[in-house]
Design a protein that fits this description.
This protein has about 500 residues and is an alpha/beta fold. It has 20 helices and 18 strands. The structure holds adenosine-5'-triphosphate (ATP) and magnesium ion. The site of adenosine-5'-triphosphate has 17 residues, from helix 7, helix 13 and helix 15.
Length: about 500
């Protein structure tokens, strides 16, 4: 199967022929051009997945050409071929919108890896467009992105339950998209052109909540100078979405139960019964079942709300959605900030995939927005990601700079360093060493306690300390009892690759 079409623009015959042989053998379709002008002409004639462009062409300056091509086709992947791959050159290339650059003479493996990554990035952007269309055809939820089994199951359920009037309880950690799903249910229901009223019960003071929900009559309380409709009346024929339902107090719970059962209520201080037709959706990031068990939430209300339950899995359980969400948010924030298209380098993307996202989609959204706002050129690297994403909690409290450990991939700045990158074994040793040293610091250099916390025999910890060369000088001022050890500052340095 063909892996993509590539346009090679280089004035040296030897290079053109070499690349043609290499790329053809790797199942790419290759087209050659000898001059900048000829290259531009080929681009007019047919679409390509990627362009390999020599910066020093006799008739055109490659960097100027880069800018010109970018204007015409913002999505074409371009890798620059340069003879003097300096950092300045790299900066100029990225700024001009190249995905990557490569220096003559290059390693074929490295070049193929770079090309594959660039084409993969483009494929992902296209997949997103395609998926958007497919999701739209199947579900018509333009604001929801996802291709994981778990997310598609949620959307199936949403489609099924939307047309009914049943109450739905949406559960899921913070930032998993509970409000997005509530809106989708409303939008796919017959009530779509009536009101959707979200109400965050947690953020409204207890004594205000009831008058907000049910309204009040004039004189019901001191500040009630006029009668007022409550949200239940406003939402008649539509949908009310109770966000953070677990926060409502016992009295409001009782009244809410009555509205759900009887579809009627009274304004505060009023005597007249008001009938409404309102669909109720509720969300909670706390486990309501547990609150029922501990007596903080009425069991009968729970069952009334929980007629249909939709659980939104945390993002870490559907990581295959991350690349699509990233592309979606990149598009959105580039547009919002008036910036040309941006993409993450493979290293940055890997960090985004590895991170556990305790704040789920909202946290991912914020990370992408931050990167876009701070970015100065097309390709965005790990340094634009928040500290929390770049570091990773391996043992509770021990954070490691993952980016610091990852050997640069071919094509990344740093990969052409003369120092060979550390091997996986060296990296793992360093990680192990840092965790042990960190634990020893926490236990005040008490090896017995550290071994206990690691749940390994003391003798095993001893062996590791020796093997990893952790210095075990007695720490000045360390409390007596237990073998006191210290390690020199110098051993904390990352020594692999030095
Ligand atoms: N499947 C999705 N596709 C695209 N964007 C999403 C998706 N799910 C959530 N989002 C976005 O993530 C953010 C958080 O979603 P939302 O507010 O619905 O989460 P939540 O579960 O209600 O969070 P909280 O518990 O903190 O109120 C929103 O900006 C939303 O647009
Ligand atoms: Mg919410």
């Amino acid at each position: 199967m063909l892996r993509g079409s590539i346009l090679v623009v280089d004035d040296e015959l030897e290079i053109r022929e070499g690349l043609e042989a290499l790329l053809t053998s790797e199942s790419f379709e290759v087209t050659l051009a000898e001059t900048g002008q000829a290259g531009l002409q080929k681009l007019e004639d047919q679409p390509f997945d990627l362009m390999l462009l020599d910066v020093s062409l006799p008739d055109r300056n490659g960097l100027d050409m880069l800018r010109e091509i970018r204007l015409r086709d913002p999505h074409l992947s371009i890798i620059l071929i340069t003879a003097y791959g300096s950092i300045d050159m790299a900066r100029a290339a990225f700024k001009g919108g190249a995905q990557d650059y490569i220096t003559k003479p290059w390693s074929n493996d490295e070049l193929i890896a770079q090309i594959s990554m660039a084409i993969e990035g483009r494929r992902l952007r296209e997949e997103n467009v395609h998926l958007k269309r497919a999701l739209k055809q199947r579900y018509n939820f333009p604001n929801i992105v996802g291709k994981s089994e778990k997310m598609l199951a949620v959307l199936d359920l949403v489609t099924q339950v939307a047309p009914s009037r049943s109450t739905v309880l949406i559960s899921g950690e913070s930032g998993t998209g509970k409000e997005v799903i509530a809106k989708a249910i409303h939008a796919a229901s017959t009530r779509t052109d009536k009101a959707f009223i979200p109400i965050n019960t947690g953020s409204i003071p207890v004594d205000l909540l009831e008058s907000q929900l049910f309204g009040h009559v004039k004189g019901a309380f001191t500040s009630a100078v006029a009668s007022k409709k409550g949200l239940f009346e406003v939402a008649d024929q539509g949908t009310i979405f109770f966000d953070e339902i677990s926060t409502i107090g016992p009295e409001t719970q009782a009244k809410l139960l009555r509205v759900i059962q009887e579809r009627e209520f009274m304004r505060l201080g009023g005597t007249e019964t008001i009938k409404v037709d309102v669909r109720i959706l509720a969300a909670s990031n706390e486990d309501l079942r547990k609150l029922v068990q501990s007596g903080r939430f009425r069991e009968d209300l729970f069952h009334r709300l929980n007629v249909i339950s939709i659980h939104l899995p945390p993002l870490r359980e559907r990581k295959e959605d991350i690349p699509l969400l990233v592309v979606r948010f990149l598009e959105q924030f580039c547009k919002d900030n008036g910036k040309p298209p941006r993409s993450f380098t493979p290293t940055a993307m890997k960090l985004l995939m590895d991170y556990d996202w305790p704040g789920n989609i909202r946290e991912l959204e914020n990370a992408v927005e931050r990167a876009v706002v701070l970015s100065t050129h097309e390709s965005m690297d790990a340094d634009l990601l928040p500290e929390s994403v770049r570091t990773r909690e391996i043992v509770r409290g021990v954070r490691l700079q993952l980016a610091e450990f990852l050997p640069p991939l071919p094509g990344e700045i740093g990969s052409r360093n003369s120092v060979p990158p550390p091997s996986l074994f060296e990296i793992l040793e360093e990680v192990e060493r840092r965790i042990i040293v960190d634990m020893l610091e926490r236990t005040n250099w008490n090896q017995t306690e550290a071994a206990e916390r690691f749940q390994i025999p003391l003798s095993t910890l001893n062996q590791k300390i020796k093997r990893l060369g952790i210095e075990t000088r007695r720490r000045p001022g360390a409390p007596r009892g237990g073998p006191g050890i210290a390690y020199g500052e110098d051993t904390a340095e990352f020594s692999a690759g030095k």
